[in-house]
Design brief:
374 residues; mainly beta; four-stranded antiparallel sheet; 1 helix
Length: 374
């Protein structure tokens, strides 16, 4: 009699698990084993970070307002970066003293806890962590320079290891997908600088050639790599262009293949493009434009990397920053002049954006980072 009982006992947990998973699958907004996703919004005028939890339905729930302790004067923006291990969020302070403020991320709740501050070389418009998680890249628009800081084990920045003068208005500074190169846009000099990057020693060396030129007075601003590492997309602030490039990983070379626009149909005014992001699967690309307060969507050709414009939608006032969540199903955009964030659903077949809901943030929000935990 004991043997059958033991066999039934062994089966029961599996049956119970299967029943539970089937039940969960029927509940809207619940997915078995789903990661918790959080959005972090950098607010320049209130000197804090708004933390939201993203539900499966696209609903955002406020979790926390994490203040920058001891920082009183507002900066012009608050760039954010998250370490590859998802343990630390770093915020760039653009008022003196220029600091990189590091927060530990709670792996269960997404909440932020301040762990320390490190020095930045200037007022930095953009920060990014290298793929190893050991170094912080930063770009100074007003200081015409880029810099490299080592990161401690706790994610706090040390003294700058390298400070490199650039052309006018360095705006974004990012590592290549394989971490062998780093690229910096110079908005005022219409060029993208290229550096070889040694992640072992933390050393940047100008490439040969050291720069890629773009059309005069176009104002190259932000850029993003395609997830497959074969393409790069660059948005130009001053003329509203979005350029597609093929990317040669061995040499770090960019070769332009297409040039289109972020400007909506019938545009009449002075372009003021801002941010650019791609879905994790690489099928859709989005860019923001501040004069018209719009987001423009593009479909990405998987073979050539070329773009087909889907269309534009209205968004928050002065949309300096936005981002796509790790599932590729939602986009969140913030407005510097609306002190708010709007969440859109991304149509998984067309890439079109559909507005879901808007939420208040801190003052002058300009940056969005998403993170899925664990």
């Amino acid at each position: 009699m004991l043997r059958p009982t033991r066999r039934i006992a062994r089966r029961l947990p599996r049956a119970a698990i299967a029943t539970t998973l089937a039940f969960l699958a029927l509940i809207p907004g619940v997915r078995a084993g789903m990661a918790e996703t959080f959005a972090y919004v950098g607010n320049a005028d209130s000197n804090d970070i708004s933390v939201f939890k993203l539900a499966e339905s696209g609903e955002m729930t406020p979790v926390q307002t994490a203040a920058f302790t001891g920082i009183e004067k507002p900066g012009s923006s608050t760039p954010l970066a998250i370490t590859p291990d998802k343990r630390v969020l770093i915020a760039g302070i653009r008022s003196q003293p220029y600091l990189a403020v590091s927060f530990a991320i709670d792996p269960k709740t997404g909440r932020l806890s301040h762990v320390g501050n490190g020095p930045l070389a200037d007022s930095m418009a953009h920060i990014a962590v290298d793929r190893s998680g050991k170094f912080l890249f930063s770009a100074s628009y007003g200081g015409n320079k880029v810099a490299l800081n080592p990161l401690g084990a706790n994610g706090v920045a040390g003294e700058p290891k390298q400070i490199i003068p650039t052309g006018l208005n360095a705006h974004a500074f990012l590592p290549s997908p394989d971490n062998r190169f780093a690229f910096a846009t110079n908005l005022g000099s219409d060029q993208v600088l290229s550096f070889a990057f040694d992640a072992t020693t933390g050393t940047l060396t100008p490439s040969d050639p050291p720069a890629h030129k773009v059309p005069e007075k176009s104002g190259p601003r932000h850029f993003v790599f395609h997830p497959n590492g074969k393409f790069v997309y660059l948005v130009h602030e001053l003329n509203g262009d979005v350029a597609a490039f093929s990317y040669e990983a061995k040499s770090g070379a960019w070769t332009e293949t297409q040039r289109t626009t972020v400007l909506p149909e019938g545009f009449n005014g002075k372009p003021w493009a801002a941010d650019i992001h791609i879905t994790p699967d690489g099928r859709f690309l989005y860019a923001s434009e501040r004069t018209t307060n719009t987001l423009t969507a593009y479909k990405v050709d998987a073979t050539s990397g070329k773009l087909t414009t889907i269309g534009s939608v209205p968004t928050e006032k002065q949309p300096r920053g936005f981002n796509v969540d790790p599932s590729g199903r939602y986009l969140a955009a913030v407005g510097e002049l609306s002190d708010g964030m709007t969440v859109y659903a991304i149509d998984q077949s067309s890439g079109a954006l559909a507005k879901l809901k808007s939420y208040p943030t801190g003052k002058k929000p300009n940056w969005v980072e998403f993170l899925s935990l664990p």
